[in-house]
Amino acid sequence: MGNRQGPHQLACEWVATQLAEWFGLPTLEYALLPIDAEFDEIPLFRGGRAVTGPAFVTKAASGHPWGGSEEELRQLANPGDVGKIVVFDTWVSNCDRHPPDLTVRRPNYDNVFLEDFSGSRGQQVRLIAMDHSHCFTCGGDLDERIAHIQRVKDDRLYGLFPAFMSHTHQEDVEAAIERLKEVDGETVARTVATIPDEWEVTARARSALLEFVVRRAEFVGETILGEIARACWPDRLFDTRT
């Protein structure tokens, strides 16, 4: 707490990272950590220090941000997660990886982390979904407007880097869609309920966030296969039934 963007970005990070984990994407190890500014002098990246209250923290991992090349993606231990991360980012409207409108925002390659990973085929890297502070609102505060129909039925693709296209496969997308079908209000409500009160997300905003996540899962599950097909496989006949 005390960061320049405010406490609602912590709430977005906390909720979206839990959803990413539930969705089956690898994430950094994360937790809530109570900070007492009287004793804990934690500098913030853009100046100032963290203030007293719950902090979102992740465990350091060995690896590096993706540089944007297809060559690096060929080394992935989890290539099926490329398509899955596109479905996930579109579900939670994450504008801070690859935004849907490049005239408004630039791609952020730093939010695709390649973790050092030793697998059955030797030393590889693993794609990690990280930094979800701009999910749901693209950096804005959480309020009742998040559940408006134009946000729920935004049909643009999020998270689809050009280098991802040749690594996004139908079977992975379809598996992600099946997972979306399992989204239910009770599960999402339990996640939203874990937002600390200190982060100042009102009851009405929490209710709107719950509504958005559930309704958008249904909309994206019904539409995203066709959208990805047009972007990634435009030259072949494609059955968008799921």
Order of helices and strands: HEEEHHEEHHHH
Structural class: alpha+beta
Arithmetic mean pLDDT: 93
Secondary structure: helix percent: 25-40%
Multimeric status of the protein: single chain
- Please state the CA-atom Rg, rounded to the nearest Å: 18 Å
Strand order of the largest sheet: 3-4-5
The tally of strands reads: 5
The unreliable regions are: none
* Basic shape: globular
Count of helical regions: 7
Portion in beta strands: 5-15%
Separation of termini?
A: 43 Å
Please describe the biggest sheet, giving its number of strands, its sense, and whether it closes into a barrel. Answer: 3 strands, antiparallel
Verbal overview:
The chain is globular, with a radius of gyration of 18 Å. The strands form two sheets. The chain has a three-stranded antiparallel sheet. The termini are far apart. It contains seven helices and five strands, in the order αβββααββαααα. The model has no long low-confidence stretch (mean pLDDT 93). By secondary structure, the chain is α+β, with helices and mostly antiparallel strands. Strand 4 (112-119) and strand 5 form a beta hairpin.
